[in-house]
Amino acid sequence: MHIETFRTYCLAKPGVTEEFPFDEVTLTFKVMGKIFAITGLNREDFQVNLKCDPERVDELRADHPQILPGYHMNKKHWNTVLFEDGLSEKLLKELIDHSYELVVKKLKKADRELLKQWESEG
């Protein structure tokens, strides 16, 4: 998956914004202000840090050499996914969706309700 496809996919989700909170090369995607995806624009290979349920982390890493412990992140909750190294677009979208959903589950109830409202309108 190319970075522009990834960007478009993330931004199509309700409540998502893109920001550069750390520096001019670290792009984050947030839902209601909470990060669910991070990528470095200065990297030669396109890779993304995505949140992951700790119960799935080991299995995903064992099954896919393109999924690594989260670079500069909590290794129990984040994976670094190599986006241009043979993973199917279907799996990549599933991993993005999973990260987004994990963050949404932890949002305040009012924010979750607002997202549901936006989804029904969209």
Note down, in words, how this protein is organized.
By secondary structure, the protein is α+β, with helices and mostly antiparallel strands. A six-stranded antiparallel sheet has the order 1-2-3-4-6-5, covered by helices on one side. It has a single domain (3-108), classed as Alpha-Beta Complex (Aspartate Aminotransferase, domain 1). The chain has helices at residues 3-11, 54-63, 89-105, 109-121, and strands spanning 16-19, 26-31, 34-40, 47-51, 67-69, 78-82. It is built from four helices and six strands; from the N terminus they run αββββαββαα. 40% of the residues lie in helices and 25% in strands.
Radius of gyration: 14 Å
Count of the separate structural domains: 1
Quickly name the level 1 CATH class. Answer: Alpha Beta
Look at the helices and sheets and give the structural class. alpha+beta
Name the descriptors.
122 residues, 40% helix, Aspartate Aminotransferase, domain 1, alpha+beta
Give the secondary structure arrangement, pairings included.
Elements lengths: L2 H9 L4 E4 L6 E6 L2 E7 L6 E5 L2 H10 L3 E3 L8 E5 L6 H17 L3 H13 L1
Antiparallel strand pairs: 1-2, 2-3, 3-4, 4-6, 5-6
